[in-house]
Write a structure and sequence with these properties.
Distance between the termini of chain B: 23 Å
Number of strands of chain A: 5
Shape of chain B: globular
Number of helices of chain B: 4
Oligomer: heterodimer
Low-confidence stretches of chain B: none
Order of helices and strands of chain A: EHEHHEEE
CATH superfamily of chain A: Beta-grasp domain
Number of strands of chain B: 10
CATH topology of chain B: Aldehyde Oxidoreductase, domain 3
Number of domains of chain B: 1
Number of domains of chain A: 1
């Protein structure tokens, strides 16, 4: 199974990329598990996605949370709280 | 349902004229225009850059307008939000609502901008004398949204 990751705003700048394709191992089933997986890369990833940081998650362009189940080809986005208007 | 995300400016009169064209049942038009301030958190803002999430942002705005339409007896609503570089004095966002009477339009317009500020994926980055910084979300914006849970 493969998913598309997207990063926006300060989080995109912190990790240095706006998107990537991720092949999921069988233990990665939820948005939260992918977030933890990215955190384990360490460095800027661990810092940007650290526990306690305000990180919002969207799956297929709808607001989601760490328990959201992933599907093949889905678009999983991470970003800070929004500040438009 | 008109929702637009664009880099260029908008003209209020033109947009309202279009929104209520050939719709004589409209008796009220309420609009909100958000503009760029030159001061935020005590620092001078020379310019800001607005980023969005193409696709999701439009969907989120459409969903907010749908919710407003299901809650209040309004005819139509328009949301225009600009992205890209913006300078103080420039317009950022327009919310316009039409209805038969003012009450519903006032409420729906405030609801839409309150929800937009908390749910629509836009992010502001400011250029200040001490460097560029991403704007932090405000707790007061969350509270502004929550008030709609109980009221009306």
């Amino acid at each position: 199974m493969q998913i598309n990751l997207k990063f926006f705003a300060s989080l995109r700048e912190a990790v240095g990329t706006s998107q990537e394709t991720l092949v999921l191992t069988s233990d990665l089933k939820t948005a939260g598990q992918v977030k933890d997986f990215l955190c384990q890369r360490g460095g800027v990833w661990a810092e940007a996605l650290a526990e306690g940081r305000a990180v919002r998650i969207a799956c297929n362009q709808e607001m989601a949370d760490t328990s959201t189940l992933l599907s093949d080809g889905c678009e999983l986005a991470f970003f800070p709280p929004v500040t438009g208007g | 349902m008109p929702v637009r995300v664009q880099t260029h400016d908008f003209d209020l009169t033109t947009e309202i004229t279009k929104l209520r064209a050939d719709t004589p049942k409209v008796g009220a038009v309420v609009t909100f225009v958000g503009t760029v301030r030159d001061l935020n958190e005590g620092e001078h803002v020379a310019e800001m850059e607005l980023e969005h999430y193409p696709g999701m942002t439009e969907k989120a705005l459409e969903d907010i307008v749908s919710q407003a339409k299901s809650r209040w007896d309004i005819f139509d609503a328009l949301v225009i939000h600009r992205v890209g570089p913006l300078k103080p004095l420039e317009q950022i966002v327009l919310v316009a609502v039409t209805s038969a009477h003012r009450g519903e339009a006032f409420l729906a317009c405030e609801f839409i901008i309150d929800y937009l500020k908390t749910l629509a994926p836009f992010w502001k980055k400011e250029q200040t004398p001490s460097g560029a910084r991403w704007v932090d979300a405000r707790v007061s914006d969350d509270e502004a949204m929550k008030k709609w849970d109980k009221a009306h």
